[in-house]
């Protein structure tokens, strides 16, 4: 079976498979899972590792499936490192890893832990060609996966969900949906030409940009409000401040959606880092 489209042998195959690991987009779900464990106040290393690997496998599945559909199915992409059979091999491997972890989580914790972990793979597998053709699926799919990674990471440690962790998940969903809307605007012309109904295509670039920053702003307001009410740790109020500074620079990028996305993604890393610190400090 040929795995790599460019080159032959084990080195080419491993390189092609490794090329589908995109740290910029894979780190947030894995970090969200770890953040959930931190929020729980408990730390079973085995359960943490299982959930982290499951989150990673779900994201890898999403990237493989997306490339498989866009290049081998739709013919949208100009190139892809994996053959069609290589994509199917990678999908089978990543899915096997995910469901092995899922089974272990279900046995070591309970069925609810497994059910909170499962959506990550479902969203990743169905992203293309099902979810990416409508505004909600295209925009909120990835953020929803991160929200579930947070909830699952918390539940496998605590075997319960609290108001605080659910609120954190909602905040992540809002903020990251805003960032994803900006990211999708990069492909506005192409998406419109093939009938892919992203938020940018449906609303237009200007209104989609306002909508995106509106979602992020709501997320920041929610963090401040819940910190004041005592649901979030008091130091959480600094997270929106840090993100707002980065978002201001992203706003100044104007129609350069690529630059704005890079800035906002890095801003989300800082946002999460401050929240983690706030939780540690109490």
Short key terms for the protein model shown above:
single chain; 282 residues; mainly alpha; Tetracycline Repressor, domain 2; Four Helix Bundle (Hemerythrin (Met), subunit A); 78% helix; globular
- Per DSSP, the total helix count is 12
| Main sheet overview | none
Distance between the termini: 54 Å
Domain module tally: 2
Class by alpha and beta content: mainly alpha
Our estimate of the beta-strand percent is: under 5%
CATH C-level class of the largest domain: Mainly Alpha
- Shape verdict: globular
Which topology of the largest domain does CATH recognise?
A: Tetracycline Repressor, domain 2
CATH superfamily of the largest domain: UbiA prenyltransferase
User: Strand-and-helix sequence, N→C?
Assistant: HHHHHHHHHHHH
Give me the secondary-structure topology.
Layout: H1 10-18, H2 23-40, H3 45-73, H4 84-108, H5 111-126, H6 135-158, H7 163-184, H8 188-194, H9 199-203, H10 205-229, H11 238-252, H12 257-281
Helix pairs in contact: 2-3, 2-6, 2-12, 3-4, 3-5, 3-6, 4-5, 5-6, 6-7, 7-10, 7-12, 10-11, 11-12
Account of the protein in words:
By secondary structure, this protein is mainly alpha-helical. It folds into two domains: 8-159, Tetracycline Repressor, domain 2 (Orthogonal Bundle), CATH 1.10.357; 162-282, Four Helix Bundle (Hemerythrin (Met), subunit A). It contains twelve helices and no strands. The longest helix is centred in the first third of the chain and has 29 residues, at 45-73.
């Amino acid at each position: 079976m040929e795995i790599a489209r460019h080159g032959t042998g084990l080195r080419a195959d491993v390189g092609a498979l490794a090329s589908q690991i995109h740290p910029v987009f894979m780190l947030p779900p894995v970090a969200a899972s770890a953040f959930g464990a931190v929020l729980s106040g408990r730390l079973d290393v085995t359960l943490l590792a299982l959930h982290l690997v499951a989150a990673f496998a779900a994201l890898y599945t999403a990237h493989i499936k997306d490339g498989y559909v866009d290049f081998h199915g739709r013919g949208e992409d100009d190139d892809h490192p994996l053959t069609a059979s290589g994509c199917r091999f990678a999908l089978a491997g990543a899915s096997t890893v995910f469901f092995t972890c899922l089974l272990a989580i279900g046995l070591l914790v309970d069925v609810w832990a497994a059910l909170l972990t499962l959506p990550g793979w479902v969203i990743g597998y169905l992203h293309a060609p099902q979810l990416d053709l409508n505004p909600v699926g295209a925009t909120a799919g990835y953020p929803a996966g991160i929200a579930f990674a947070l909830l699952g990471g918390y539940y496998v440690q605590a075997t319960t969900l609290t108001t605080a962790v659910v609120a954190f998940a909602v905040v992540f969903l809002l903020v990251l949906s805003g960032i994803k809307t900006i990211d999708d605007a990069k492909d506005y012309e192409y998406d419109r030409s093939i009938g892919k109904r992203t938020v940018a295509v449906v609303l237009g670039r200007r209104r989609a940009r306002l909508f995106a920053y509106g979602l992020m702003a709501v997320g920041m307001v929610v963090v401040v409000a819940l910190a004041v009410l005592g649901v979030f740790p008091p130091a959480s109020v600094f997270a929106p401040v840090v993100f707002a500074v980065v978002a201001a620079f992203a706003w100044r990028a104007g129609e350069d959606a690529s630059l704005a996305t890079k800035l906002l993604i890095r801003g989300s890393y800082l946002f999460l880092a401050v929240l983690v610190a706030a939780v540690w400090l109490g």
